[in-house]
Amino acid sequence: MLAFFIILGIILIVGFAIVGVYNSLIRERNRVKNAWSQIDVQLKRRYDLIPNLVEVVKDYMSYEQETLTKVIEARNFAMGAKGVKQQAEAENALSGTLKSLFAVMENYPQLKANENVMKLQEELTSTENKISYSRQFYNDSVMQFNTMVETFPNNIIAGMFNFKQFEFFAIPEAEKQNVKVDLR
Amino acid sequence: MAAKVCPRCGFYNSTFRKTCSLCSTPLDGEFSKEVAFKTTFYKVQSENKANSFFLVLFLFIFLIGLGFLFGYVFDFGYYGPILALVISVITTLIAYSGGKAIVMAISGAKKVTEKEEPEFVHVVQEMSIASGVPMPETYIIESDALNAFATGRDPKDGAVAITRGLLNKLNRDELSGVMAHEMAHIAHLDIRFSMLVGILVGTIVMLSDWITRYMFFGRRSSRDRKSGSGGAILLVIAIVLAVIAPILAKLIQMAVSRKRELMADARAAEYTRNPEGLASALEKIAGSSIKLETATRATAHMFISNPFKDFSKKSSALFSTHPPIESRIRLLRSM
Question: Which residues of A touch B123 (CB under 8 A)?
Answer without folding.
Answer: 126
